[in-house]
């Protein structure tokens, strides 16, 4: 019996594997310098008005995660089409279904608890690149869809509680959350939740208050307001990293055919029997994923 993987067909590019512990290229700053983020231990919140370019940023991150040999993807996309092209690379792809969304978040919470039990047993505080564990990148496009639009009030509240727990505890356990909302208001993003996101990106906002809700209180008054961004400048945003000051960036945009090409390749390197696919897990406790 041969165990050799099928030979790649012509046209499939071959490149070194990325890691979720590597810096992720997300665009350029106002001086034309490349902008990187490191998601392994940080969450990211993207907020701004519809059409501002939030999904562009999420797709950029999804591309890196899909190409990372140590990453697994969990996608929640109420519109189905924003992250839909990554479905074949994802462990879970949830559409407009609150029951499925709650199921996957409960499961992630269990994996997180298992990972913390494992860390504690090893006298450790966080997972590292050397642990041979996959980083489970959770992308949510659009928080408000699950927390305020579909489902009963009780289901919406459970969604918010589970998301909050994941955002609060997931990063040290290798489960970062990247979430977008076109409704940057206190009811959707209360300060206590906002502050758990180490990276925050404010795309064009209509009021200084909504810009502040994403970036943090007082930044608009200091001259960093996403109301400055022209409606025609899609993909422009202020990005702040925990402890830093907002930086004006332009997100690297992948069009649909570029995404299709990357997603195809990512699905190919993730075919069963290779990399960290669900059939190839590294430990009993991780199988809970
Ligand atoms: N970085 C970018 N560079 C150039 N154009 C962009 C960029 N990002 C987005 N666009 C353009 O803006 C359009 C809307 O972007 P996108 O879907 O990412 O917005 P959004 O904020 O996610 O909107 P929604 O809240 O409705 O989901 C894209 O179809 C594209 O044409």
UniProtKB/TrEMBL annotation:
- What is the name of this protein? DNA segregation ATPase FtsK/SpoIIIE, S-DNA-T family
Residues bound to ATP: 48-55
Cited InterPro entries: FtsK/SpoIIIE/SftA, FtsK_dom, P-loop_NTPase
> By its UniProt entry, which PANTHER family does this protein fall under?
DNA TRANSLOCASE FTSK, SPORULATION PROTEIN RELATED
Q: Which Pfam families does the UniProt entry name for this protein? A: FtsK_SpoIIIE
- Report keywords, A-Z: ATP-binding, Nucleotide-binding
Give the classification, highest ranks: Bacteria, Bacillati, Actinomycetota, Actinomycetes, Micromonosporales
KW ATP-binding (keyword) present:
yes
Recorded source organism is Micromonospora nigra
Q: Which terms in the Gene Ontology molecular function aspect does this entry carry?
A: ATP binding; DNA binding
Ranges for domain FtsK come to 32-212
